[in-house]
Amino acid sequence: MWEYSEKVQEYFYNPKNAGVMENASGIGDVGAISCGDALRLMIKVDPATDTITDARFQTFGCGSAIASSSALTELIIGKTIAEALTLTNQDIADFLGGLPPEKMHCSVMGYEALRAAVANYRGEAWEDDHEEGALVCKCFGVDEGMIERAVRMNGLTTLEQVTHFTKAGGSCATCIEGIEEVLVKTNAAMVAEGLLDAAEAFDPDQAARPVRRPKAGKSPLAIKLEPVSKPKLTNLQRIRLIEEAIEGLRPFLRQDGGDCELIDVEGDRVMVKLSGACVGCQMASITVNGVQERLIEKLGQPLRVIPV
Ligand code: FES
């Protein structure tokens, strides 16, 4: 289970600047719902001063994605474009009092969305609009540029870190060789520029040690990321835990005039009914995703929350 700071929880339950912006000056889209995380950042810019006067976001992702997106909007409103572009993903994480290492990709998504929105505002081509084939990790839509930026900005030197910061390699792991290539190349450049000690640079031969090297066709990350086995729960125990988790979330939803009720559990499918302000709300998918994440953390098992 991940430990979230109080500020992450606050920004998850009460996200600021969520929603659609009419007549945005620039829009940045990163990720894809099919990849599990997507973020749209909309900015309003005063052309006379090049200042970001307003920002809104819509995201499909976990609680830390919501919190990171919300934090990003808070950080950039009132800044000039030039000032905003000096922000790093670490600034977003710091603003939130830190993020679990496995969730740092949410802050990177925010950083990338800002760059995309600014490119859109300036009428520039967004370099992430890559052609098919330019991707390193097809599961999560991550290209070389995004990996390189994350490696440089955060001083990454291992495959596992790259997965935490970009999600690349976190699923089928067929992209591991591609990630290794980018990591080797980027670390080498950082060493040459005096930004990284040569002894710390990623070494694929070191990664060939038993913990990281694929066995019988499996990738090191696939092995590493296998879920830890937990005591098996009876159906009754599972349903009780699901009920408890949902009951714990309802007061927060009610604060905003919404509600969520458990309807049924079939295997790994949890059917819920959203009501009140949650019905038709553009944030409904976020609510469902948040409920799902809470349940997965509580049960330690994969499951899907389905609104019915
Ligand atoms: S292609 Fe990267 S995890 Fe599947």
TrEMBL record:
CDD domains: IscU_like, NifU_Fer2_BFD-like
Residue ranges of every copy of the NIF system FeS cluster assembly NifU N-terminal domain listed in the record: 3-124
Function field: May be involved in the formation or repair of [Fe-S] clusters present in iron-sulfur proteins.
Domain spans labelled NIF system FeS cluster assembly NifU C-terminal: 242-306
Protein name: Nitrogen fixation protein NifU
Protein family according to the UniProt entry: Belongs to the NifU family.
Species name: Oleomonas cavernae
Domain BFD-like [2Fe-2S]-binding: residue ranges: 135-183
